[in-house]
Amino acid sequence: MLRRTVAAFDNWTVAPMTLDELKSHLLADIPLARAMALDLAGWDGRTFVVTAPLEPNRNDKGCAFGGSLASLMTLAGWGASVLRLGERAEGAEVYVQDSHIRYLAPVWQDIVIHAFSDDEAPEAFAAAYLDRGRARTHVQAECRLVDGTVAASLSARFVAIDPKRPRPAS
């Protein structure tokens, strides 16, 4: 088995792990991820790929349920944000701050989500977190069909917060 060191959450914080360990934590700590049969297909340092079978995620018409697509894209965006922080930000708490979803075509197949940062300087997210104890990143997630067509997309902002640092005064 190929082990790739990545970052994941341990009690909702970042800690170095393999993709298999990240999957175990997602399935153990987020019941919806388990119900959707989420699987992690890979991380290449830029793009995080999440998959799920159609059957537990279908609606009454037989295509993918919009709520499942929204949840899977959000989880993929969260995972991409956590992975970008890497080992340098152990202990970070990562949250989705806001998101916008577009549904473009029905999904009649197993679900494949690609999540990636649309920030120009990916290292800036981790650097800002290490410097200030808080950072934001923009993430795109796409549900792609077999032919590459984007069936749904999410544009989101995720924040990383160091729980050990005092919050700035408002």
Automatic annotation (TrEMBL):
It comes from the Bacteria. The lineage of its organism: Bacteria, Pseudomonadati, Pseudomonadota, Gammaproteobacteria, Lysobacterales. InterPro entries: HotDog_dom_sf, YiiD_C. This is Thioesterase domain-containing protein. It comes from Pseudofulvimonas gallinarii. Pfam families: YiiD_C (PF09500). Residues 20-161 form the Thioesterase putative domain. NCBIfam families: yiiD_Cterm (TIGR02447).
